[in-house]
Structures are given as C-alpha cells and as structure tokens.
Amino acid sequence: MVTKLGRRAPIAIAGLAAAALLAACSSGGSGSPSASGQGGTAAVTKAPSSVTVDFPSKMNNLDPDLGYNVQEINAIGLFGEGLYEFRYGTASTPEPGLAQRAVTSSNGLTWTFTLRPGLKFSDGTALTSADVVASLNRDRTNPANVWAYFATPFKSVTAPDASTVVITLKQPYPYLPTILAESGFAILPAAQLKHATSVTKPVSAGPYMIQSWNGGNTATFVANPNYWGPKPVIKTVKFTTITDFNTTLAQLKTGQVSMAEGLPMSIQPQLTGGLQYKLQQMYGFYGLPFNDSKPPFNNVNVRKAVSLALDRQQINQVVWRGLAHPLSSFWPNTMTGYNSGISTAQNVAQAKKLLAGTPCAQGCTIQLDISPILGGWASQLATVVAANLADIGIHVNITSLTATEYNNDVILHPRYQMSLAFLYDYANIPVGMLEYAALPGSFFHGFYSYWQDPKLVAAIDQASQTTGTGKAAALAEINTLFMQDMPYATLATDNDLWSQRVSSKFIDVEPTDQVEVARAGS
Questions:
Q1: Using an 8 Å Cβ cutoff, are 259 and 500 in contact?
Q2: CA nearest 187: which of 308, 98, 307?
Q3: pTM of structure
Q4: Cis peptide bond upstream of 11, omega within 30
Q5: Which residues face 61 on adjacent strands?
C-alpha cells in the first residue's frame, strides 16, 4: 500500500474466491482494473525451476510492519501469509489463508477465525493462535508500523484456544478480509516478536521462505516445505535491483532477468523476441506531491495553478504512449468514487489568473525532485511538467536524488518543494488510498503533502466504516475537499509496465502489482 510509494511506495503495498469457507466475509471490492498493452509470446512454456525478478527500487526491509516499497511488498507477499491471502489468478480478491473459516457477529464487531489444522512455520515449529495474536497485536501497537491505520479499528485480538482467534472491533470494518490479506498483516512466530523491535529475517508462513538476503541488491526465496497449501510451481525466486532500464532490457533479452517491473513505456516496442509485456492498471495514481507547509505551495492558488497548467493528455502520450488514464481528481477511474465529470483539460489562462497576488505572480523557480527508484518514466514525466509550467512563468529545476536522498527528503521529511511519486492499493476499497493520500498524521502524510483539512477525518471515517449510500457520500466529499484544497496534483491512474520471458501460466503480475506464482494443480 504504496514511492511506489507504493504502496508500491507506496509505496504501499494481496484477496476471497472461496467465500463459502469464510462465512459472512466481503472485501467490498468491485472487480479489478484491466491490463492494457499486453503483448508478445513468452519464450518459456514449461515452468522453470528458478526465476529472477528485477525491480528499480532496492529492498531495505523484510519486516511486514516496515516494508513499503514495491520490492519489499512483493517479497513479503512471497514468504508471508495472513488469515487471508491473495493468490495467483484471483486478482485483488482475498481468499482463505491461515484461517479455514470465519464467523461474524450480527453487529459485525466480532470476527471469530478457526485456523487450519496442523499449520507450521518454515522452520517446522507449530503455528498456533498465539502467533496470530502476537502478530496482530504488534501490528496494532507498534509505533513504527507504517500500516498502523489499518489496525486502528481493532479493539482486541484474543485466542480462546490454540486454533481460534477472535478480533473484536471498535467500529464496523467491512474491508477486514482484504486488510488481513495484505503484506503488513503477515503472521510471524510469537517467539521471534517477543524481543524484536525490527525483524530482519522473518520466519515464513507463506509459500516461500527466505534463503538469503544480507541487505544488498539480491535476495533468494525458495519453496517452503511446510506450507499448508499447494506448493508453488517455481521452486526458487530471486529478486535483484537494477536502476538503469537499458541494463534491465539487455538482461531480459539474454535471460539473466526473467521478469522486470517499473519499465518506461518508451521501451515497449523493444520488448520482442519472446518477451511478454503488460501495462497493469491499478487502484491508485501518479502525482506531483507539493510541500504544502512551505512557500510557494502553502498558497492554495499556486497549487491550483500548477495543476491547471499540466497538459495531462500530452503526459499520457509522451510517458505512457496513450495507454494511461489522465486524472486530476482524488479517486482514479479504477475505483468506486471516481467522478468522470471532473475535467483533466489544461487551462493555461486560468492558471495565470490564479497566480496573481501569489509568490509566483511574477514568475518563480521550483525544484522538482525525482529519483531512479521511481522507474524510467520519472525523468520523461518531469521534462513534460517543466515545459508545461514554463507556460505560466514557473521555472522548474529537475534534481535527481539517490534512493536514500529521496527516502529522507520526500518520504520521511518534508525537505522538498515538489516531487514525483505514485501510490496504489491492493483492491477497490477506500481504506488504503485514504491512509496514503489523505489521512493527517499517517506515515504517508497525505501523499507527502501534509494535507490538512478539518473536514477530512470525518469523511475518512465514514468512507472506511460504511457501505452503500453513506460510503458514496463520503467518497464524493473527499473528492470535493481535494478539488477545493488541491494539496497535490494527480496526473494519471497508476499503471506499471512489466515484462517477462516466462509464461504467465506460471508467474504473473496481478492488479495488486504483486508477483504471484501459480500453485501445483492450479
């Protein structure tokens, strides 16, 4: 949930086909976004024993409470497992994971989960309700947990016996199954959590386990022999980090890399010779975070003028070859709450009018921070943004930050003026998007803008706790507040170009933007 930010970080950040097994559970989603631009024929038609997956962002953490960039979330998705899980081929729908079934009380505030019999961790030790309670209570109370907002509705987590877990809620939480399937709620051994503030090499409950990772650019995951469910058809998955997309392309073509994330659309015509590609649309957006706490972006008219000056159609053509969906509102077109009536058209004349009386009335210079960890699209997009803003007298200095600098100056501290980032969530539910892009005081600080509006919290609470007309009204209110405050500029619905030389029959990327490996018998 997610840089990507994402929850590709976000940044930021996998679903319940067997709904009958988990009575009364609903993710609240309404289908997954379609993938545009699929093409090619993968060269490998038999499941390989090993694959190497490349990411432009480096993995820094494997602790489920602390991992938030794309590679980290993908890694935790391989070795981690919660009461629910996301699986190959099921997109963003949570399915039964460690829980065999669940029963909810009539008021929806008590959820009772029965664990599968004979569960074990990858080290062979028994996995019981005590481990689930320890993990979920850590999620609920850990001050460093970047996904803490998701656990705020939890009142208590208890274990009446070794195979039963009871979650008692403070308020209705219709999206609980999806939340419990996400990477931040992976279950770890209680013994490992007892004295650890940060877990550097988690013991696995998922289909893979960690064979090696020393904090560097490579990690290896192997099939977990003690996993409760069908085993993955690919026995070894290796992760690597390559920030230069030309190098990634070369290694895809030679087979050194089996699959790659975060490629720029400009290289899509070169994805030939047995390479398969997919522009995966997701539940999120690309945007320009503004530092709302400092000049000139503490002036709302400057923020609105910048947004109006952006030629989103040009951005779509240059950066995404026309396959993205231009966006200027809070909710992307893949999610409930999207308002197609909000214009994405450029309006230079109105933008110039808004600058009158602002610090940029006679022109100004703004620094735009980008980083290679965002992917190959970032420099292309920054160039178009700079040209658009020059039309209203704003000069843009584009600065490329290292991964550490970007993390420190954009994500962790507001030491920037304007930046590029993206975020997305696993499913069409409002909870994640609201934490990442709106909630005051969350780890993501309103998409790093430090957006503050007195009406936000009430609207967020209503959107997270209700369904039907109450939810629709809250989502519309959040869109209204966004257009009124323009805390940052959204540009396009989030999408991610992946390419692979292994057939998607065996490994694929889902709308969660997570790599999923097919299981035996699937």
A1: yes
A2: 98
A3: 0.84
A4: yes
A5: none
* Cα 395 to Cα 303, 362, 364, 487, distances in angstroms: 15, 11, 6, 20
Please compute, for residue 452, the number of CA atoms within 13 A of its CA located in the half-sphere on the CB side.
6
Name the 3-class secondary structure at 253.
helix
User: pLDDT confidence of 197, banded at 50, 70, 90?
Assistant: low
Residue whose entry in the numeric block shows the structure tokens 């609470």: 461
Q: Are 516 and 509 in contact (CB under 8 A)?
A: yes
One DSSP character per residue, 29-70 reads ----PPEEEEE---SB-S--SEEEEEESSPP----TTT--SH
- Over the chain, what is the mean pLDDT? 89
Confidence of residue 2 (pLDDT cuts 50, 70, 90): very low
Which tens digit of pLDDT belongs to each residue from 402-418? 989 999 999 888 899 99
For residue 342, the Cα-to-chain-centroid distance in whole angstroms is: 24
State the number of CA atoms in the 13 A half-sphere of 222 facing the CB: 7
Identity of residue 350: Q
> Where does 286-376 have alpha helices with state H?
300-309, 312-320, 348-355
* Strand ranges (E), 27-182: 35-39, 50-55, 84-85, 95-96, 99-104, 110-115, 154-161, 164-169
**Model confidence at 296, in pLDDT bands (50, 70, 90)?**
very high
Per-residue confidence band for 16, with pLDDT thresholds at 50, 70 and 90: very low
Sheet bearing 154-161, strands edge to edge: 99-104, 110-115, 164-169, 154-161
| Sequence-ordered list of residues with C-beta below 8 angstroms from that of 406, at least 6 positions apart, any chain | 3, 369, 370, 371, 373, 374, 419
Separation of alpha carbons 47 and 495, rounded Å: 27
Mean pLDDT of 154-173: 97
